[in-house]
Write a structure and sequence with these properties.
Pfam families: BLH_phosphatase (PF04273), Pyr_redox_2 (PF07992). The protein is of the alpha/beta class. The chain is built from 17 helices and 26 strands. Strands 6, 7, 10, 11, 12, 13 and 24 form a seven-stranded mixed beta sheet that branches. A five-stranded mixed beta sheet has the order 1-2-5-3-4, sandwiched between helices. The longest helix has 19 residues. It is elongated and about 80 Å long. The chain starts with a strand and ends in a 15-residue tail after the last helix.
């Protein structure tokens, strides 16, 4: 191990072995940054061995893999993020230390250092930087803000950066780093470790969305449902923290919002769903105040609980828009947990509860309706079907709904409220709806079984933005991910895609604090219980289902699903 000190806070070295980590710790290093792609060479120590040894010595490990000759500005940004958040001092390594020194030098230039200064520093450390300026001229120009006088003024895109993405051509590119994206990346790597995978998503925070309702019910704290995105990206996956602008499926490329293009051999599209708050007049202006809230946003869910816990009398209105929406049970979960609180505190007779549902029934699978209706009766909730929220005036505490009578006449109904919980209308994201990947409704057009795109055979879609008719829940994603991963690996090997998704979805309906109606069903509303009925009857409220929702499922999500562990969801050939 030959450590080369660049500053008091940063040093570089060649490939580490697990045995080196004790000496690294004794030298005072608190973080290691690995800049070498895992499995780059056959005799290379796997990153997980390095990480285990580092963690045993109290050292954090971060992963920013690069190939030296294709280092681009995106790599510099990722390295800068890792460095900025790392405990100091930091030791970075690659095969020889050159890539680590190059990233450090480019980061220094992005912070104002001159090229000559970093070349001198690298030379003193023993690195040959004689061709540094020429080799990385395009990166230096971009990160230092120097414009290329030969480019057209109207075109701000750095052509060399674009080419570096194209030349890479990842084996698999994944659009979206939500539950679907991270899980499918992990499941792919568990099958084929050497795949070159890029994951595209600008978000810096990842949320466990099934926990939002529990925050709104005073069960979870807001901090329990979020993690830094960087901490969840699987080892070996290239994270591109930019947004997708458009798709070029004929050229096997994705265009990003900075104008660069990412080339792929196979593409997985799973960007989630768009919450269309603007579709309801007056709603965006009053969200989070005037008694108007929604558990569909992490920052608003605590306000839901504040309203519920502080309300002793008045009118509480809960809404549900037309389908599809993610977790169709969530709008009424908010009602049940609120009603349970008021019931337990002897306030249920003082609070008028109304549920305005744009649909015609309480729940789409009839087997679960009797149990749910019994709780609506318990909380004395007034049900209004075929009522769609269209306008809100928070200052006046009024809401308006459109409803259609038996003769097809559209009427507008007005109601007052003291608390209004809104579930917003939902659509596929704009860049999906306006793309060649979309069907007539704007959703990703996939085969409902294989989840392969119907037109572009090297593209797959899953999660909330796909046009499959299943319930849009994390449980559905958990079943879809292994199917997509197995089918893609089969496709790579030239084998038939024999794995099929059955439409499974699950909606744990929190009917009271301590009990849940665990709805599990597949395509066509067919009941698909995971456990035998004698152990857990999902059509009835049970404390066992509550325990699963509260204590088991979050751990399964963070430490199982996102890590590629396919407990009870291994794909079955069909």
């Amino acid at each position: 191990m030959n450590i080369k000190k660049m500053t008091d806070e940063f040093s570089v070295t060649e490939q580490l072995s697990p045995e080196d980590l004790t000496n690294v710790a004794d030298a005072g290093f608190r973080t290691i940054i690995c800049n070498r792609p895992d499995a780059e060479e056959g005799q290379q120590y796997p990153l997980d061995m390095i990480e285990n040894a580092a963690n045993a010595n109290g050292i954090d490990v971060l992963y920013v893999p690069v190939v030296h000759d294709t280092i681009c500005s995106a790599d510099v940004r990722e390295f800068t993020k890792a460095w900025s958040g790392a405990a100091k001092p930091v030791l970075a390594y690659c095969r020889s230390g050159l890539r680590s020194c190059t990233l450090w030098s480019l980061m220094r230039i992005s912070n104002g250092a001159s090229s000559n200064a970093v070349i001198e520093e690298a030379s003193k450390a023993g690195f040959d930087f004689s061709s540094f300026k020429e080799k990385f001229a395009h990166v230096i120009a971009e990160i230092s803000g120097i414009s290329d006088s030969t480019k057209k003024q109207k075109d701000p895109i750095n052509e060399a950066q674009v080419m570096s993405y194209q030349e890479t051509q990842y084996d698999v590119v994944i659009v979206g780093a939500g539950a679907s994206g991270i899980s499918v990346a992990s499941s792919l790597l568990s099958r084929e470790r050497r795949l070159r995978i890029a994951l595209i998503d600008p978000a810096e925070t990842h949320y466990y969305q099934p926990g939002f309702t529990m925050i709104g019910g005073g069960v979870f704290d807001a901090e329990e449902v979020k993690r830094p995105m960087a901490s969840l990206i699987p080892k070996g996956v290239k994270w591109i923290s930019l947004a997708v602008e458009s798709f070029e499926p004929e050229d096997n490329a994705v265009v990003l919002n900075d104008g660069s293009r990412v080339a792929y051999k196979r593409l997985i599209v799973c960007p989630g769903i768009k919450l269309n708050w603007d579709a309801i007049e007056g709603l965006p202006e009053t969200l989070g105040r005037n008694g108007v809230t929604s558990n569909y946003r992490a920052d608003l869910a605590p306000y839901t609980w504040k309203l519920i816990s502080g309300m002793t009398s008045g009118k509480a209105v809960f809404t549900q828009p037309p389908m599809p929406i993610k977790c169709a049970g969530a709008p009424q979960k908010a009602l049940y947990l609120a009603g349970d609180h008021w019931f337990r505190h002897g306030l249920i007779d003082n609070v008028d509860i109304s549920f305005y549902n744009a649909g015609a029934v309480l729940f789409g699978v009839k087997d679960y309706v009797p149990a749910l209706q019994s709780y609506m009766d318990k909380y004395q909730a007034e049900l209004h079907f075929s009522h769609k929220l269209v306008k809100v005036d928070g200052d006046k505490k009024l809401a308006w709904f459109e409803t259609t009578d038996a003769d097809g006449n559209v009427q507008t109904v007005e109601t007052d409220f003291d608390m209004l919980h809104v579930c917003p209308p939902q659509t596929a994201p704009d860049f999906i709806r306006n793309s060649p990947l979309a069907d007539e409704g704007g959703w990703i057009d996939v085969d409902p079984g294989t989840l392969q795109h119907k037109k572009f055979t090297n593209i797959w879609g899953l999660g909330d933005a796909a046009n499959t008719s299943n319930a849009k829940t994390a449980a559905a994603v958990r079943k879809q991910v292994p199917v997509v991963a197995a089918n893609i690996v089969a496709d790579i090997k030239g084998q038939p895609q024999q794995y099929h998704y059955d439409g499974y979805g699950s909606c744990p309906l929190t009917v009271e604090r301590g009990k849940i109606v665990l709805a599990e069903f597949a395509y066509g509303g067919k009941l698909m219980p995971t456990l035998p009925v004698w152990m857990l009857d999902g059509t009835k409220p049970t404390s066992m289902a509550w325990h699963m929702k509260k204590s088991m499922l979050p751990a399964l999500y963070w430490h199982g699903m996102l890590k590629g562990h396919e407990l009870l969801v291994k794909p079955v050939a069909g």
